[in-house]
Fold this protein.
Amino acid sequence: MLQVEVYSDIACPWCYVGKRRFEKALAAFPDGAGVEVVYRPYQLDPSTPEKAEPLSERLAVKFGREQLPAMHARLNEIGQAEGIAFDFDSALSANTFTGHRLLWHALEEYGRETQAALKERLLRGYFGEGLDVGDHGKLTELAAEAGLDRDRTAAFLASDEGLAQVRQAIDEAREIGVTAVPTFVFQGKWAVQGAQEAETFLQVLEQVTEELGKQPSA
């Protein structure tokens, strides 16, 4: 069974694009149904405030306001090709640590498919619907839409569950050399950075599978 760990952030548009492209590659890969995909936490900017603010304002400080139209136009064009409707005008910047905790919870208690559904819902909420992904009430709603139990989610978010585990996972990502997202790690050995084209991901899946087939079984 091939495992792929995807290091990504909810506040990363290229992670959204990369997710869609990798899923397209999996759909074209003959053994795609047997690939185990799990999402690992990474924060592009851990200093992002808990209180939500317009994403455009935060990006203007970071990149310069004059750069935003071209940046957004490029991402809008790429997003459309992948079935993503970016809405940068309404997007809200918020610290994503709690969202990563919720993704950890989804994986631990519900499994990979539910975690993937929650990841998709969080990305769509952040980039397409102007939702505050740091708000516990809104996170509870999104989790319920992705198949998590509403009451259990609310209790989880109100607790300290997962805090230490997610902090450790973020530290481990940096320790193994993850410096940009998305980063796809295949079988804990081979890493591919960036939102590659689906065709490239497909080639990597084929190459990794071939390489694993050459290795003697334990």
Summary: Residues 180 and 193 are 7 Å apart (CA to CA).
